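Kindly go through one protein, given below as sequence and tokens. The question is how this chain folds according to its tokens.

***
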Amino acid sequence: MPPVALITGANRGIGREVAMQLFRRGFDVFAGAREPERVQPTGYEHDERWAWCRLDVTSREQITSVADLIAGQHDHLDVLINNAAVMDKEPLVNGDIEVVRATMEVNFYGPMRLCNAMIPMLRNSRDGRIINVSSEMGRLQHLTGGYAGYRLSKAGLNAQTILLSHELAGTSVKVNAVCPGWVRTDMGGPRAPGSTEEGADTIVWLATTDHCPNGAFVSNRRIIDW
């Protein structure tokens, strides 16, 4: 049986690259996108191992539908990659709280919703993995001004990773966060030094390595400080 992966925000950038690399490595891939009908085709859509899923991580109904879709085809899920994210530029002082709230809904509560929905199937895997795509901008030692919602949501996602790794200790599921670096995506912009392939590398490594850490923050395949 091939391993099974669900990737959120797989319509573009790092998420798309991760989904395609895992497919090429033999995974059954469920690729989440808010508007799958508008996604540029990958060329893998003809294969039964690839499925686009309508998935807005702020929607409990869509998350439940994707969980039901996976459960209808498999009795387990091996890898959940929480990649979907948005970025705001609000300051903390006099910033628009509603903008910050909207960022938190996607970047922090979205992964929490996905984990709660998918953990039962991840527990059925012999080697389940949750990979939360975070950022250097959420590291405590790198918290400077601006981008309040993004920084707070990624710092919160890091804390969520630690808590979940402890709560799932003793099970087959490992939980880690990844900093993919500054990458040339719609979010990272054209001046970023890294390619999407470079941004995807550590995520794919954590999904496939036989020596996966647990409860760690990882960049360039190395554990870094929170």
Q: What stands out?
A: The beta strands are 4-7, 28-33, 50-54, 79-82, 129-133, 174-178, 217-219, 222-224. The first strand starts at residue 4 and ends at 7. The helical segments are 13-24, 60-73, 97-123, 148-167, 196-208. The chain has a mean pLDDT of 95.
